[in-house]
Amino acid sequence: MRKQRRVQEVQPLRRRGDAIFVIDQLLLPRKTVYRRCATPRETAAAIRDMVLRGAPLIGCAAAYGYAFGARGVKTASPAVLRKLDRDGALLLASRPTAVNLAWAVARMAGKARELHRAGSGRFYAELLVEADRIAEEDVSANRRMAELGARLLRPGSVVMTLCNAGALATTGIGTALGVVRRAYRLGRVKHVYPCETRPYLQGSRLTLWELMREGIPATLITDSMAAHIMKTERIDAVFVGADRIAADADVANKIGTYGLAILARAHGVSFYVVAPSSTVDLSLRCGGDIPIEERSSREVLWVGKHPIAPRGARARHPAFDVTPHRLVTAIVTERGVVRPVNGAVLRRVLGKAR
Ligand code: MRU
User: Domain residues for 201?
Assistant: First the structure.
């Protein structure tokens, strides 16, 4: 087993009392600045503006945001529940694709109703405990997926990844990047190619930053280089995260994932998705039903303060795409590995009756 370089763990979200402090990911890798969110509105704004991002982390932040809406409440009334419903709706509206957000808000709303029914005198405190629990479960899900995913690789593998599915996207070691981390320690990964991930550059700004801190050998490529690198270098596998997985096992993830899956298939490269069960949405029949966030075209037409297209140019910015399940070699969840990838196996691994 490789010795791990001792670096301070990345903690994109910390709770201190009645607030969370989140790393402003828009400022990475230049500086690490924590921003305070202490209300549902502040939390929703941080999610919407991508101060924090990544499906599992969005879910954890939303859970805290929901709890903050009940600050100071010892015993809930129907009016408190109605106010929390409004807070939940505000959080839900912040970003549409990652289902972890809706999952976390629904879980918190369920807990709120349970506490109300039981006449709890510790309403706010118990909601905070539930949000802490969601964050802790994410840590252990990450660890479990890392173990399961690392087993899919032969020693000395070279892998490619897109976007950031690392510690910055979760409260643990990451989903896809958690697997890479673990596999590197076991000697199963020797090199990583992160794709830069236009237009938000999560691959170059965040994933490469995480890899370099830990001394994991990595070479940045632009998204358009992926085919060439797959053809001319040895790439053993692609690992990506997910924002939502529909009942047929189709996968929504960062824009560019679908293209990468097609390239992987064309070059005989395994294509793995790593995501916790909270990312699965069995209420949606197929990938085509997944809402795809359309962000501002300014994010495509500008890099920082610099325009990179003629004045008045039009652009599109779908932030996610859907990869058909037939292009996915396996989906790694904390409950087990879905392989072959289809709706029936997904349900079986998740332990859901047909
Ligand atoms: O727009 P982002 O940065 O929130 O998109 C993130 C992704 O697409 C990740 O791959 C996904 O959330 C999985 S994170 C563990």
Answer: 144-350
Atom of ligand 1 nearest to the CA of 98: 12
Average pLDDT in the 176-191 region?
98
**pLDDT value at position 354?**
52
The pLDDT assigned to 304 comes to 86
Integer angstrom CA distances of residue 352 from 242, 247, 281, 345, 347:
20, 11, 12, 10, 5
The residue length of the chain stands at 354
Residues with catalytic function: 243
Ligand 1 centre from 199 Cα, in Å? 13
pLDDT bin (cut points 50, 70, 90) of residue 89 is very high
Average pLDDT in the chain? 97
Could you report the per-residue pLDDT of 61-81, keeping only the tens digit for each?
Answer: 999 999 999 999 999 999 999
Closest residue by CA, ligand 1 atom 8: 254
The residues that bridge with 47 in the sheet, in sequence order, are none
Distance from the CA of 322 to the center of ligand 1, in angstroms?
Answer: 13
Of 100, 126, 142, the residue at which a domain comes to its end is 142
Same domain, residue pair 88 and 192: no
**What value does the mean pLDDT take over residues 111-139?**
98
Ligand 1, from 49, 244, 253: best to mutate by most atoms within 8 Å of Cβ? 253
Same domain, 199 and 113: no
Q: Which two tokens stand for residue 47?
A: 């999610």
Whether 243 and 97 have beta carbons less than 8 Å apart is answered as yes
125 and 173 in a common domain: no
Query: To test ligand 1's pocket by mutation, which of 10, 202, 210, 272 has the most ligand atoms within 8 angstroms of CB?
Result: 202
pLDDT band at 50 (very low <50, low <70, confident <90, very high): very high
Predicted local confidence at residue 171, as pLDDT: 98
Is the residue at 1 inside a domain? Answer: no
Among the listed residues 204, 177, 181, the one whose alpha carbon sits nearest the alpha carbon of residue 56: 177
Q: CATH number, domain at 162?
A: 3.40.50.10470
Q: Is the dihedral of CA 256, 258, 263, 268 positive or negative?
A: positive
* Same domain, yes or no: 85 and 182: no
The pLDDT confidence band at residue 7, using thresholds 50, 70 and 90, is confident
Instruction: Note whether residue 2 is domain-resident.
Output: no
Ligand 1 site residues, Cβ closer than 6 angstroms: 53-56, 98, 163, 165, 169-170, 175, 202, 241-243, 253-254, 319
